[in-house]
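Sharing a chain and its predicted structure for anyone who wants a worked example. Both blocks are below, sequence first, tokens second.
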Amino acid sequence: MAKSQGAALDRKKFFADPIMVTTIVVLIAFLTLFILYPLAILLVDSFITDQGIGLGIFKRIMAMKNFRRAITNTLKVGFLVGISSALIGLLFAYVEVYVKLKTRFLEGLFKVVSMLPVVSPPFVLSLSMIMLFGKAGIITRYLLHIYDNNVYGFWGIAIVQTLTFFPVCYMMMRGLLKNIDPSLEEAARDMGASRWGVFATVTLPLILPGLGNAFLVTFIESIADFANPMIIGGSYDTLATTIYLQITGAYDKEGASAMAVVLLCITLIMFIVQKYYLEAKSTATLSGKASRQRMLIEDRSVTIPLTLLCSLLALFVVLMYICVPFGALFKTWGYDFHLTLKWFQQVFTRYKGFKAFKDSFVLSFISAPITALLSMIISYLVVKRTFKAKGFIEAVSMLAMAVPGTVLGIGYIRGFSAGVFRTGFLQSLYGTGAILVIVFIVRSLPTGTRSGISALRQIDKSIEESAYDMGADSFKVFMTVTLPLIKDSFLSGLVTAFVRSITAISAIILLVTPKYLLITVQINEFAEKGAYGIACAFASILILITYSAVVLMNLVIKYFGTSRAYKEE
């Protein structure tokens, strides 16, 4: 009885707050219209034909040899990249957490490598791979004198994607390894087990769910990736590139929609397993923090080979990123290595570079604060409030993480150019900058939401409850109490959203019109043509912009962040 009365009182207080109710209604409408609706339209397009409801379109695409081959290719690349990225990430994490590094240089090098793929365009390593190991590559042609090396295809995609995604696994595994209690491993050592025996019988079983989690995250990223297979795939088609070519080359919107549904089903299944099984199992296996500091390994037979292997891999990744600005400074890559600024000049004089950077910067600059604020609001509602639609808001906002960009792009084309809304405001969004801003928001929302949820779970409820008791409404509590306490997460989400937006390619390449020039689309276009000088010039400036944004964020957090405020108090 008391419980039902308490629930009724909470419901009454909830509906007495119009700002809270309005926010929830607007959020539900936004998530439904811009995430669920485009995906629903894809399903409708895939099952409904002129002959009625059926599997005719699926039968047609499954009869296509190139589509069946694309599915096999995608799964092969996904599994290899998932396994190799998880293992390399584990190696780097183990060296950082367990091994005593001799110099600060190595610590700095590992941090740089873990950050590089996050703030760089998704296809930078593909450009570098071609310039280093292609037919005119410095390493293959000039150092090894191999004149017919073919870097395109399965191995090219697999290597590039592994180098792009392993830092994600490294950061995940580092957190897991730090949470293992050292006493468990030391007890095994005291009983005579070798270091390999301790790792195989104690450490590995504890982190196995986390390792599986890292594999699935990378697998999803790999099969959803569009930019790298487009540039370095050659004739080796993946699902993402096949879908793109089906709609832009064959003009088969229904077939592309059905292909997109197949890719979406694969990523959704993997996402559900990763999110609701392995992630939860990993958290349950390693709950809390290590009870005391770990004794780092100083045995040279362990430290030297592991440190050397990680250093070589890290230096190779750095070399590939350094290759891009040099590609923009050489007169003709592979033939004339005299330094020149002509490619940078042509970016702005011949190829409308100013417009490309202005359009990309403005659209990303608009989307970033909206994404950061929406993420914090969703996080606040999920963690701090109780209402019936809470599960819906959390699930749909996270769903965008599992939706490949190509799939989302086709959903927006079908949904807003010829869907239910054939007239009116929503139909008029198609082809405008607003639809690009919305795509940027939807793609970055899950990352900011996860960060916000983690930060909010560390805040004691009593801090906000005291503000409510003093008569503040939900808006005032959120803006004056909650948001200041999580401003580090807000600022981090702001810059992450900006970087993800300005480097996005897979969803927007299908939605961008001649009215807007975007940097990533320009890089992709010139790379496909083999104009690597111009592509590298665009990419170098883009990397400079993204790094500047990250450095600026770190300075702001350092001098105005929450931790500094607490320290001064």
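Comments welcome. Strands lie at 48-49, 52-53, 330-332, 336-339.
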